Amino acid sequence: MKRLGFLIPVAIVAIAALLSALFVVDERENVLVLQFGQVKQVRTEPGLGVKIPVIQDVVRYDARILGLQSQPLEVTPLDDRRLVVDAFMRWRITDVVRFREAVGVEGVRAAQGRLERVLNAAIREVLGSVPSGAVLSEDRTGLMNRIRDLARREAASLGVQVIDVRLTRTDLPEQNLEATFARMRAEREREAADEIARGNEAAQRVRALADRTVVELVSAARRDSEIIRGEADAERNRIYADAFGNDPEFFAFTRSLTAYERALRSENTTMVMRPDSEFFSFLRSDGMGGVGSPRPPAAEDVPAPAAPDATEQMLGQ
Fold first, then answer.
1. Which residue of 157, 195, 231, 233 is 20 to 30 Å from 74, comparing CA positions?
2. Which pairing describes strands 66-69 and 38-43: parallel, antiparallel, or unpaired?
3. Domains of the chain (ranges plus CATH)?
4. CA–CA distance from 68 to each of 73, 180, 209 (Å)?
5. DSSP secondary structure code for residue 267 in this structure
6. Is 233 helix (H, G, I), strand (E, B) or coil?
């Protein structure tokens, strides 16, 4: 009975020692077995491993792709324009033994710090060799690939592989933004002034063309009206001449009536004429009969076809 009581603690200790000697390697990690700081085993495949209890330790490292976001970094491109740049790096551990020797017991945290210094140095070297326009353009793939290749060579000594580098921000410093905005605003205002000047010039051309067209149209209309008026006057004179040739007495009578109508209006008009003037030939007592009267005016006393104008001039006086 005493012997059974002694074997139970021994069995428990043996089971505990056996369990502590076993470890499991996950597919997402790499494992190092260390004995007094020296690497004794490297396990990169998933499965069950064995180590010496107490004497040996198991150190695990993530085998997946890790990310590193750098802090904002101020760089000076080739044209001496300062820029604020930050980047994102993707990396993974490829040689766990070299990684352990390079970073020591701090592991991934120490590697992140050293990789950020490597990344910043690569960014300064690459972006410092190109003008700021190339950095601020949308197509920066070539620059990012150069930064990635340079960081990959420097990070190889740490036992890691740099997979990709992306520039997440490339901006001007705050103190330069206002000056840049002012320059952009002045450029836009200059372009607006040029557009306004060109618009005013075009408007002046349109107005000048319209004014010239108006003058040409008015001149042509006046010319046509004068031609029509001249033709009408000629036709009127022809009609007067024909009427005078057909019946000179009746023509003289109608012309005299027209002259009487215009002269004897209810206006303050004073006329000084001789009593025996031919103007009153149809109003005298011996000529009241008008046409066919005993003393009709002679044909040579009847006004010519242009008499209306002469009569109007006389009345105007």
1. 157
2. unpaired
3. 2-62 (no CATH), 66-172 (3.30.479.30), 247-316 (no CATH)
4. 14, 31, 69
5. S
6. helix
Query: Cα separation of 46 and 41, whole Å?
Result: 14
Q: Find the farthest-apart pair of alpha carbons in the chain and give their distance in angstroms, rounded.
A: 192
The predicted structure's pLDDT at residue 133:
80
Alpha helices in the chain (DSSP H): 2-21, 96-103, 108-127, 132-136, 141-155, 174-246, 248-263, 307-316
Cα(130)–Cα(158) distance, integer angstroms:
29
Give dist(CA 265, CA 280) in Å, integer: 16
Residues 6+ apart with CB under 8 A from 23: 31, 48, 49, 50, 51, 58
| Amino acid residing at 290 | G
Highest mean pLDDT among 111-125, 129-143, 176-190 belongs to 111-125
- In this prediction, residue 175 carries a pLDDT of 63
Structure tokens at 199: 């618009």
Task: Give dist(CA 267, CA 93) in Å, integer.
Answer: 124
